Amino acid sequence: MSFRIEQKILIGKNQIIEFKNLYQKKKLKKLYPQRVIKSLYFEDLNYNMYKDSVEGVLPRKKIRIRNYPNEDGNKFYLEKKISSFEGRYKEKKKISISEYNKILKSGIYDYDYGYCKPLLYVEYKRNYYILDQSRVTHDTQIKYYKFKNKIIKKDENDIFEIKTHSKADLDELFLTFPMDRTRFSKYCNGFDKLFT
Prior knowledge:
Blueprint lengths: L4 E7 L4 H10 L3 E16 L3 H8 L4 E9 H4 E11 L4 E8 L1 H10 L1 E3 L3 E18 L2 E13 L5 E3 L3 E7 L2 H10 L9 H10 L1
Antiparallel strand pairs: 1-10, 2-3, 2-7, 3-4, 4-5, 6-7, 7-8, 8-9, 8-10
């Protein structure tokens, strides 16, 4: 298991051009072509994953099935994003389309949260960059919709995220990108927009 450090910067629409100029000036190198990411998040009957995330409870997790519709819409990955006292890490496994369809109908049983059902989709465009030993992503055109219907809520902001394995790298990145950090979860934001 590989722990990583993550920091997120919420970029308002009025800051995007300024921010793009900053990371071009810092010579971020494009790592991969832009891709569309679609994640279906699962939740228990009492919304405890949402509540734990909002309250910052440790340990906690989010369960989702992710795919990349513009590349191969039939490839699905079951992921658990886990925040523990030791750090953050992700468990990921590829599932077949038949497993995917079965999970949509039956849900997922999780040891910590019990029975979890599909709740909401998060879809966005992601750009990937590398700076020294850290990976940097820039998410745009973020939208949310319920599993049961396709009423779409859009996010007006972009998310810029720094992922690294070293505290020293993160300290250096604070100097490189002197913006306010924020706790931000696309899942929680989508939940707030659709269910509250």
